[in-house]
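To whoever picks this up:

The nightly regression suite flagged ATP-grasp domain-containing protein as changed. Nothing in the input moved, so I suspect the structure step. Input below, exactly as stored in the fixture:
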Amino acid sequence: MPKRSLSTPQPPGTLLIANRGEIACRIAHTARQLGWHTVAVFSEADAGAAHVLACDRAVCIGPAPASQSYLNVPSLLQAARDTGAHAVHPGYGFLSENADFAQACLDAGLLFVGPPPEAIRAMGDKAAAKRCMAEAGVPLVPGYHGEAQDLPTLQAEAERIGYPVMVKAVAGGGGKGMRLVHAPSQFAAALAACQREAQASFGDARVLLEQGLIAPRHIEVQVFCDRHGQGVHLFERDCSVQRRHQKVLEEAPAPGLSPLLRERMGQAAVLAAQSVGYVGAGTVEFICAQDVARTGRFYFMEMNTRLQVEHPVTEALTGLDLVAWQLRVARGEPLPLAQEQIRTQGHAIEARLCAEQPRAGFLPATGTVHHLRWPPHRAWAPAPLRVDTGLREGDAVTPHYDAMVAKLIAHGPDRATAIARLQAGLAQLQLAGVAHNGELLQRVLALPAFQQGLVHTHLIDDHSDTLLALPDAQAVQLALAALAQHLRQAPVNTPANTPGQTPHTGGPPPDPWARGDGWRLHGQPSLHGEMLWLDAPTPQRLGLPRHTDAQTDAHTAHLLPACTVVPRPQGDAFDVFTPLGTFAFARCQPLQDGLRAQQARAQGHTGTASLHAPMPGRVLAIDVQAGQRVQAGQRLALTEAMKMEHAVCAPHDGVVSELLCAVGEAVAQGQPLLRLQGLHSDDAPTASPASTTARTVSSAPTRPHAP
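Regenerated output under the current build:
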């Protein structure tokens, strides 16, 4: 293949970016560098979002729900017509792998920055894609890819394949509609859940079955093809570190692979893409056993017919701009480089920063970001540390869209350096107002198994005790010392700094006699003996140290200057950022705490607990009836929030005394769903107030746009 020109072509005009968040910002960055005019689309919830400001023009396409905005094809096409757009870039997620949308763009005379609709259809149907790959000679995982979808047939096929077996949505992606089934007794329930998620997310309930590999590795290859019959691969990425079948860390090169095995994977990926007439950027995903470096056996899993979330890993490794390649190939230009001209340098790792609660089953989180400080970085460009994000201080993370808010990408001359740089970047991150997985990411990077390159898809599950453990005493003590130091240095007798009081913004003056924090007339209350609540899975009541130096461990005292205390904009609470972790504290309010304790005692007397919705969402199922006796851990209801299913389970044995919601009902966060009466007398002890919180189990995601 001859060398291609890297000169910037004349742009066709205006590019509409049919997406939101960090990927819309990232596409706009490259498009404008190449001289394109850019158009953002936004829902009513995103009117002030970063991607709106990143483009030359912006068009509102509907209300907050994705089905009425970012998935609304007529609205998107009308926005393209109204702005005179010549091309549409779908980003990832949403409609990026929707063949009908690609065809609609072409029918409207728009250039679709992606593969032909026929290629999307060929690879979008996983069962058909596997049959196509078998014909092309690409190795497949043993399984069932047939049309019959009845329970008896699928059960029989699962028995033939042998347990464990993976149930997968045919039209799925991004971990949606997937269950690993370990025994025949679990199959029917897992199948029903996959079919329900697949129908809700893709409008297609069909599934396929695959042999379930134990602790496999997930390795994917970035491919690019042009309209002139040329195809190349840009090497592989290891995406094995996952939770709920969704990627957490991605890195390149994949640890432990020989150059020969890498080349075999790359050639198989290009063959897979070219067998369906592919054009543009795509990713061929392989699954393999832990001993792939020894056996050399890998199997085709699926092809993502779009740009991947983790494309910055390949950009850092090769120094190439994949979005620029997409735009040029979409215009009919040949690939900029031949296979032998593509080089790699060093090692790169990406961490997905998600608004979620790892210790609560990775339940997605919402809220308003009241404090945000990124580590020193570059955006959308090769650097020792790169941050791709659309999140800013003051932004709200809502339940309408994907929970990923940013990507941190580290590059170094070797794997150890890249890991160290990513760890340092995560340690410097300050994000308050929304729960996130930054601490978990740091702990995964520090695992000896990860450091040694012993990665697989069950790594987080296997090390959950370590990864989800509460902070150690030294870390908490450092945070307390930092907060004590901050409070002693804070000015007194001002509305913004008097304990329990927020800045006065007009209206009647605040009433000090209505406060319950021990306020006193002259100045700030003494810090001696002050108690605080540490926000944790189980809130802990802790005392503030009297003397900072004396109470801070000698091993951590030198870290005090690196700590930052940020007061919450409302309420008497603080976020404390330390080199050993981030902590949220709230001052104890003696009078209010006393009232809560009194209410708890009354609740304990009756033994009745209300179980609440974990997030704003919708009730999918109610599994019990009033008067029914249930056991601890039994699923009582199923809700959907942020396009994920959440099972509300009984925290203790009891009797359902009252149902407070109905199937299909929209519920707010914290809204009571049902009441559970603890068993009494000879049956079981009455439930204590501390045990009245429902256990919530998050299933595999069902987001229709989650990559």
